[in-house]
Design brief:
Protein name: Group 1 glycosyl transferase
Shape: globular
Distance between the termini: 16 Å
Keywords: Transferase
Largest sheet: 7 strands, parallel
Radius of gyration: 21 Å
CATH superfamily of the largest domain: Glycogen Phosphorylase B
Number of helices: 14
Strand content: 15-25%
Number of domains: 2
Helix content: 40-55%
Structural class: alpha/beta
GO molecular function, one term: glycosyltransferase activity
CATH architecture of the largest domain: 3-Layer(aba) Sandwich
Order of helices and strands: EHEEHHEHEEHEHEHEHEHEHEHEHHH
InterPro entries: Glyco_trans_1
Length: 371
């Protein structure tokens, strides 16, 4: 039996793709008889096969102050404190594989292995994404063909990596709300009942998710404008994004919320279109989630989004002003049929559901163990 640690410092208090994936992956694989899986998380209750480790959370005032004194971010302080709490479990239980997504935690684990001559292997899920070479990792999970090919072209050995996309909890059949059900749910969520709704889910920032670009593009649309709802974790850039939205769109057409992952599905159900404004993703978990609800997805045109959305996506160059606004106008003024929604759902269910991908994850773990 292969003993595996899955550490994630933000799990339990941070709403990002890393945390969502780690939670779902653990739940999907924990009953596999050929492996013994232990989840290490930054908050929440410890339970069978799940251990909560002490750490200074990234938004804790102590982490922020220590970060200022050391020239680091609160996020790095959280990762470092979480890592030190993990060490005693590594010493006691001697895992065969540590399966991680966070590059900072991975670097710390690599240095510790080098210093202590411990034997665990490092399995890196490349969701950031990071680019080759990968001298510190024993095995790499590549999420898309483009990232895999990039690594192969750079000389990373075939036997050191696998193409295994993120897995998702996707219902086998898509359920579309009736018009009355949509209005009722929007009312419960305190959202406009009849106004077209644009949804974006991700970190409320400028540098990666580019929420400021999305706001400006919606502001460029003619009246009446759609309602823009941003869901996600807030960080140091969030206040600037929120102020920009209120300035350009007003409180009647714009809102930012942070909700639990279990609540996000309701927002997908009532949206008219989904936008991801980032120019770079490892996969873009939110795109699969939106497609699983049948939503038209508007994205920057590059290899990763082409892989995820295929023929069902709406693509443009989001480095250009008015590029997204034209795409939004096109989608909202040419609503598609329920049949197209079902096709979107079918596309991602067949490629990204745990029912389809679970055997590939087990195979990847065994390849890592014997690499």
């Amino acid at each position: 039996m292969i003993k595996i640690f899955m550490p994630c410092s933000g799990l339990g208090h941070v709403k990002r793709g890393f945390e969502s994936f780690t939670r779902e992956c653990f739940d999907a694989l924990v009953d596999e008889p050929s492996i013994k899986l232990t989840l290490f998380k930054g908050s929440g209750e410890s339970r069978e096969n799940e251990v909560t480790l002490w750490n200074l959370r990234r938004n804790d005032w102590r982490a922020i102050q220590i970060g200022k004194l050391t020239g680091r971010t609160g996020y790095i302080i959280e990762t470092a404190s979480f890592f030190f709490s993990l060490l005693k479990h590594i010493y006691r239980e001697n895992p065969d594989i540590i399966y991680f997504s966070d590059i900072n935690l991975g670097n710390a684990l690599w240095h510790w292995r080098r210093l202590t001559k411990t034997k665990y292997k490092l399995l890196f899920s490349n969701g950031s994404p990071q680019y080759p070479p990968f001298p510190r990792w024993d095995y790499i999970q590549q999420l898309t063909p483009a990232l895999l090919q990039l690594s192969l072209d750079a000389g990373v050995a075939t036997e050191k990596q696998s193409l295994v996309p993120y897995g998702f909890n996707i219902a086998p059949q898509l359920t579309i709300l009736t018009s009355l059900e949509r209005k009722t749910l929007r009312s419960q969520l305190r959202l406009p009942e009849d106004q077209p709704l644009i949804l974006s889910v991700g970190l409320i920032d400028k540098s990666h998710k580019r929420m400021d670009y999305l706001i400006r593009e919606v502001a460029n649309l003619p009246e009446p404008k759609p309602y823009l709802l941003l869901l996600g974790q807030k960080d140091t850039e969030s206040s600037e994004v929120i102020n920009l939205g209120l300035e350009l769109l007003g409180a009647d057409n714009f809102q930012v919320r942070s909700v639990e992952q279990s609540e996000v599905d309701d927002y997908y159900k009532v949206a008219d279109a989904f936008v991801l404004a980032s120019l770079r993703e490892g996969l873009g978990r939110v795109l699969v989630e939106a497609m699983a609800h049948g939503l038209p997805c508007l994205v920057h045109d590059y290899a990763i989004t082409q892989f995820v959305l295929g023929e069902y996506g709406y693509f443009a160059d989001f480095q250009l002003e008015n590029s997204l606004s034209k795409l939004i106008y096109q989608v909202l003024n040419n609503p598609d049929s329920k049949y197209e929604s079902y096709l979107r759902h079918k596309s991602v269910y067949e490629r990204f559901s745990w029912e389809q991908l679970r055997p590939k994850y087990i195979d990847m773990i065994h390849k890592c163990a014997t690499s």
